[in-house]
Amino acid sequence: MEETKKPLKILMTAMFDFGHLSSCLGIGYFLVKRGHQVYFAHFPKYQSIIERQGMQFISLYDYADEGAELSDAVPRSSVNFKPRFERSLKMGPFESLKEQLATGAINTGFIKILDNYITENDIMHKIVGQLEPQICLVDYLYPLPWMYLVDCPVVPIKSTNPVGLYSRGPPPNSGFSVKESTKDWTEFKDINNEVNILILEKIVEIFKQYEVPLIHRDHVKDLGIYIYPEPIDYRELGPPRNRWVRLDSALREHDTEEFEIPEKLKDKPGKLIYVSMGTMASTVTELLTMILTPLANSPHRFIVSTGPNGDSITLYDNMWGDKFVNQMAILPKVDLFITHGGSNSLIEALAAGVPCIVIPQFGDQPDNAQRLADLGLGVRLNLHEFSDEKLLKAIEDVLNDEELHSKVTRASERLKSTDSRDKVISLIEELAETGSVLF
């Protein structure tokens, strides 16, 4: 990736979750390699990883008004995710949505995110005013008023499943297959809007406060970037929403250290399997316990990302784990990945050529799980259909499925040969330099 003649001043930010941050770090690193001056506004706990990519760190706290509500911890508590886990044990996404409507359940986690957003909006407006970047890149679940009030172009980044960008696709977070009946799609959308009415009202309130017209969150004026590999993108649904372009991955291969297989597992028999349920879902220790207990009877070896509450997780004789592990370094060493189905994890697995068993819980995870299942690149195992026997059978089925392995290998090779990175970076540069972009 060659440096450009005229360095740009670029500002980036992302919502607090590491998955969103990680995707932006990759894009920021690519821009730094092109010779640009990249600033990243975020929380201090991520300062070192941001600076390792060659970017200049800006602390959100430095621009917060005294007494302003701003936290880097919401909503990581199991209190926010345990009810969702318990619903997932009983039913799929559609039935869960119906129950939420019937019981009046509130998505407190996202309400807390929006509370953070109000303060973050003011902070980012200040930072842009003082820094005067030529372009901003942001990864939020919902847009904020500052994005429409500043004088430079603002490019939204979508690091979650992109099915919502396709007008002919199933509703986001439904886990519906593109190959099956569409009869429930409209009802799912309608119920989802009712269940999330408090979130919508909160967003409307925020935009009214700043006298900014509220537009669809996937509408972009100049350019939007969604991160999803071409081999698993929804090409059969036609083009995505206007002015959105695909970046096949934002992986930071340079940041990966070598992973040594732990001594505890090195000489044991069996295939090597990696288990991770993601940072948020792993706060619910019951989830990992449910998955790991039957694996104690498996003939294979397991590397486990135990998550922030790892001290409460029992690891058996055929397992090694830690609270935080280097997933990018581990994946090339393993034969199978048992995952929650977050988009970053799927992309990393595909890049490493590793098949997946996806056990989705919420958000875009059911969509990702179904996408892999539809394309024959993995297996979806729903929590409400979970049993010890089904998990152990799924492991053997995937390990011994030669056709599935061939498909994963071909998809991985296509991902590695993509030129989307240079194309997307060039579009960012064009927009920053000229104020518009031609497709």
TrEMBL record:
PANTHER family: EG:EG0003.4 PROTEIN-RELATED, FI06409P-RELATED. Coiled coil: none annotated. Belongs to the UDP-glycosyltransferase family. The keyword S-adenosyl-L-methionine does not apply. The chain crosses the membrane at residues 12-32, 272-296. Gene3D superfamilies: Glycogen Phosphorylase B. CDD domains: GT1_Gtf-like (cd03784). This is UDP-glycosyltransferase 202A16. It comes from Tetranychus urticae. GO terms for molecular function: UDP-glycosyltransferase activity. Keywords: Glycosyltransferase, Membrane, Transferase, Transmembrane, Transmembrane helix. The keyword Membrane applies.
